[in-house]
Amino acid sequence: MITTTGLTKVYRTGRSGRSRGHEVTALDGVDLHVREGEVFGVVGRSGAGKSSLIRCVNLLERPTAGTVTVDGTDLTALAGRGRRAGKELRRARSSIGMVFQHFNLLSSRTVKDNIELPLEILGHSGQERSRRALELLDLVGLADKAKVYPAQLSGGQKQRVGIARALAGNPKVLLSDEATSALDPETTRSILRLLRDINRQLGLTVLLITHEMEVVKTICDSAALMENGRITESGTVGELLAVPGSRLAHELFPVDGAGTGPGGTVVDVTFHGDAATRPVISQLSRTYNIDISILGAAMDTVGGRQIGRMRIELPGPFEENVVPLGFLREQGLQIQIVDEPAAAAVAVADPVTEEPAGSTDQPAALTKDGAK
Ligand SMILES: Nc1ncnc2c1ncn2[C@@H]1O[C@H](COP(=O)(O)OP(=O)(O)OP(=O)(O)O)[C@@H](O)[C@H]1O
Ligand SMILES: [Mg+2]
């Protein structure tokens, strides 16, 4: 539904006279793919380029290079063709709704008139605008606030108006830049629920920017990590949790805890679906007659599915634990060795795609790449 290829944005600042000023590369070749109907979260530190990305996706900002395709239309091709193309771009943009951190409501207009604003610009009749605005107010749970002014609303209510306004033109795509950052945790949850409901009910594709992992956990199907203008990790949340060394997975489920001393093997284990509710660790302990120390653990629900991570320590070096680790993988768990130099050179094969552990001399399927 949204695809960017090689999206690059360079801001040139302080250019005057003969001075060339200096350049800031906010986006550095971003390839993004958001599937129809999914909620896709982009996370990253301040200055990573998240807002630049979203502003380039709806061409509020003209990319320096690369393409943006939304719902089959190459917006970047429309952008540079003079005034007529400008009109086409405006039309294409009307299928993209945008929600802002600070709501961007007009204080001089009532709630209903704020929602009608984009429809006025699109030239809809008064009657049609009114009907649509009331319908949207109902959808966002503010049917009784039509005649009220923004100043009389709470932050959460203002954001509901912002969302209703973004939906006015029946967009296929909703872009959201830190829509919940100015809200308290409980209001954040209610706004996220609203976005999720809208996503499901209307089949709307949502691309949201956030720096809160809670947002990703609560509503995102997929996520990407942005660093220095690049996407460094990307995938469905389930996939990301399965990638050894994934920084996003670690942020979503931080598990810490130091080993009890030299000689043990410390392993991070990720549980999904079924495996999250089976007594795998006690089975492991009984089957191989080993004592397992649990150094840290986190359990949570992602997209309604239980997922967990645990850091455990097995006695003895990695080489002695290849078989028990293979057992964990056969149980459908993802495992990653923590700070164990030998692991970099030894394979613990994935039972699905490769030979079972212990019966292979293939190069490392489980590497220390990215491990802390
Ligand atoms: N209009 C602009 N002119 C010049 N530089 C800009 C402009 N907008 C952003 N930048 C620079 O581009 C980089 C990326 O900024 P951007 O706003 O996209 O980051 P962000 O990830 O949204 O950060 P935050 O989490 O703080 O909102 C930063 O170095 C920023 O200073
Ligand atoms: Mg930003």
TrEMBL record:
Keyword Kinase listed: no
GO MF: ATP binding; ATP hydrolysis activity
Domain ABC transporter, first and last residues per copy: 2-253
Keyword tags: Amino-acid transport, ATP-binding, Cell membrane, Membrane, Nucleotide-binding, Translocase, Transport
Descriptive protein name: Methionine ABC transporter ATP-binding protein
Listed Pfam families: ABC_tran, NIL
Renumbered residue ranges of the record's region Disordered: 350-372
UniProt-listed PANTHER family: AMINO ACID IMPORT ATP-BINDING PROTEIN, METHIONINE IMPORT ATP-BINDING PROTEIN METN
Top-level taxon of the source organism: Bacteria
Any one biological process term the GO annotation gives: amino acid transport
